[in-house]
């Protein structure tokens, strides 16, 4: 698998700072319930135990608990809000009561906030949230200690509580961060296994393509080369050939050369040959030569082009697909209905390219001569091979989001029509709903 430098840098950054996953709906509901419960309890305790004014109690509780809902999406803002609530509490605390540096609801909300930050964010942000939210009660204890020294008191109980809170919340940060790295390592392991599986599938596919390419080269290409050599040398090997026979042999040799060229292109694609991948592919401008060459196969074909703009401006994939549809359709006419007339129509009007190939009803003599090879319904030898011609055309067309129909005509003959979208935006291919169709006669 080819990996660019940018991809390597991005993966390195992700390994250091893995992106947190979004919370599920159930997790959001549980978090909202916990926030509402902590808010209600905090307001009650601040008012009842610490004697804080109800307005002040609502403000401190809102700042301390609102950060829980913001932590999964706005962690820095959540940290600042909780810090504001923690920093405001020492003022009424120092006035009204002597108790822990943090009320129990604030301690619980701080623990949840640190757990969320540690599980989802970086270690640096987790430590910053931990130290920032402990700075306010530590500063309050220092000021309270200075005041107590003037009156002969002490703040040892509060200091011990702050140390215990610091150790407790520090363990939460360390545990949460280790769990997050463990979960991230598991996800990376799963992704690495998937990457290895994909790479193995690609390698197996490449090996299979290479095997098919070898078979085609050793069997098909060799046989076609023999046909080309026999047709090219026939005028020199066979005495007293007429001019018509020499022209026919030359036509056969030309068709064999073209087929060998197509075969080399196909072999290069199967072998992932870079030179072949860069070779020019047939376009709509090559249709005239294709239609003219069909006369060598025993049919008369005509091309009609109706466009409102230059066909060469179409995407290469659309032009190649249209060319292959015409090529396969004419090949079917040559195989199953020699002696008929074919008409190729290419219409480019608006956002759609329509390619239609029709042929007239085969002569009676042709049907009698072919017998089982073509019947009145247009089925022939290609159907005996599974109808791969129409199947291949349909796969090409549907890949581009188009639609292909192939059906017999009521007055005889056959029609193959492909509609290809030519808009720049990619369109999702729709499944073909038409009934199974047979090859045309």
Task: Describe the protein's architecture and organization.
With about 450 residues, this protein is α+β, with helices and mostly antiparallel strands. It folds into three domains: about 180 residues, no CATH class; about 70 residues; about 140 residues, Histidine kinase-like ATPase, C-terminal domain (Heat Shock Protein 90, 2-Layer Sandwich), CATH 3.30.565. The chain contains 15 helices and five strands. It has a five-stranded mixed beta sheet with strand order 1-2-3-5-4, with helices on one face. Helix 3 runs parallel beside helix 6, helix 6 runs parallel beside helix 8 and helix 12 packs antiparallel against helix 15. The two termini are about 45 Å apart. It catalyses: ATP + protein L-histidine = ADP + protein N-phospho-L-histidine. Keywords: ATP-binding, Kinase, Membrane, Nucleotide-binding, Phosphoprotein, Transferase, Transmembrane, Transmembrane helix, Two-component regulatory system. Its EC number is 2.7.13.3. One of its GO terms (cellular component) is membrane. GO terms for molecular function: ATP binding; phosphorelay sensor kinase activity; protein dimerization activity.
């Amino acid at each position: 698998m080819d990996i660019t430098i940018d991809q390597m840098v991005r993966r390195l950054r992700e390994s250091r700072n893995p992106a947190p996953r979004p919370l599920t709906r159930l997790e959001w509901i549980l978090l909202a319930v916990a926030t509402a419960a902590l808010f209600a309890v905090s307001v009650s305790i601040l008012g009842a135990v610490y004697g804080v004014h109800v307005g002040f109690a609502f403000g401190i509780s809102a700042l301390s608990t609102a950060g829980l809902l913001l932590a999964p999406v706005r962690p820095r803002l959540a940290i600042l809000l909780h810090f504001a609530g923690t920093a405001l509490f020492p003022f009424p605390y120092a006035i009204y009561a002597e108790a822990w540096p943090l009320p129990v609801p604030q301690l619980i909300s701080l623990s949840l906030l640190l757990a969320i930050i540690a599980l989802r964010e970086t270690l640096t942000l987790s430590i910053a949230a931990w130290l920032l939210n402990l700075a306010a009660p530590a500063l309050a204890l220092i000021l309270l200690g200075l005041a107590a020294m003037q009156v002969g008191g002490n703040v040892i109980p509060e200091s011990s509580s702050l140390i215990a809170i610091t150790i407790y919340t520090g363990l939460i940060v360390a545990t949460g961060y280790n769990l997050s790295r463990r979960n991230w390592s598991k996800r990376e392991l799963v992704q690495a296994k998937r990457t290895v599986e994909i790479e193995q599938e690609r390698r197996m596919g490449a090996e299979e393509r290479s095997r098919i390419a070898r078979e085609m080269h050793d069997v098909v290409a060799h046989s076609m080369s023999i046909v080309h050599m026999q047709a090219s040398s026939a005028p020199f090997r066979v005495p007293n050939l007429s001019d018509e026979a020499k022209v026919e042999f030359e036509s056969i040799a030309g068709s064999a050369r073209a087929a060998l060229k197509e075969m080399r292109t196909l072999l290069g694609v199967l072998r992932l040959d870079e030179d072949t991948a860069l070779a020019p592919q047939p376009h709509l401008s090559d249709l005239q030569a294709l239609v003219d060459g069909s006369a060598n196969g025993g049919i008369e074909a005509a091309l009609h082009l109706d466009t409102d703009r230059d066909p060469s401006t179409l995407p290469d994939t659309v032009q190649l697909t249209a060319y292959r549809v015409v090529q396969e359709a004419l090949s079917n006419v040559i195989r199953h209905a020699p002696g008929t007339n074919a008409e190729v129509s290419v219409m480019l009007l608006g956002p759609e390219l329509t390619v239609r190939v029709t042929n007239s009803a085969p002569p009676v003599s042709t049907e009698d001569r072919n017998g089982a090879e073509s019947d009145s319904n247009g089925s022939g030898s290609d159907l005996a091979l599974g109808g791969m011609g129409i199947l291949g055309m349909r796969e090409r067309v549907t890949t581009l989001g188009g639609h292909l129909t192939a059906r017999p005509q009521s007055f005889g003959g056959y029609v193959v029509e492909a509609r290809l979208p030519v808009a720049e935006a990619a369109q999702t291919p729709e499944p073909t709903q038409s009934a199974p169709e047979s090859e045309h006669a």
